[in-house]
């Protein structure tokens, strides 16, 4: 068999496998259903919350600009691991909690190499407008200083995560401990969705309207294992700033399909242009 024929058949097989895999990835999560057209990289959010408030409505209620946040199309990926910017400091503000476990859920960061090594940023008693300054003090050490809504210091805690300047976020409560890295959650499901600032969005978090900046992110959490609760992702919402999301991401299905198609076209090019092949041999 000529090499181009062999390459052609291998590419067809690869493209078929890729497209089938892409189709499997593109199937929306069945419960709750995603809107038609969203693929497996989008976390499905139940638009009907048990308490009558859903994430989209809550974000709309604090948006003061004509441009808003779409809870589906504005999800960022990857959002599993994070790092603090060159200032070495990140401000964190508790936006809202709409959950029966609001007085019990705690939030913080964890060591990617040991998920049980945590640093708490907000306790269960924290409420809206509480804030925490997270400081990277070097050598993998972090210090958190918690403030109440009046700006008074509540306390400080510290932890050491190693030297890679990476961490993940966690939410812990009666429903379990959940992580920004979905692979650490039950059945590998996402328990957090993240939204990046910028794009002309302005928000009012209680101190008047201000820009939702490009280095700021909203992290919205579901505090029950995905599929066992209401999946509304408004149980705990926090804004974090001066951080950068990273690793690991899932390739988009259409990108995989285009890669396979490229291999197929490359394999059939000699077949479509035999004169070029003959002239090359003659040369």
Automatic annotation (TrEMBL):
Pfam families: DUF4114
Signal sequence, start to end: 1-26
Domain DUF4114, chain residue ranges per copy: 165-241
Source organism, top-level taxon: Bacteria
Keywords recorded for this protein, A-Z: Signal
Protein name listed in UniProt: DUF4114 domain-containing protein
Organism (species): Candidatus Nitrosacidococcus tergens
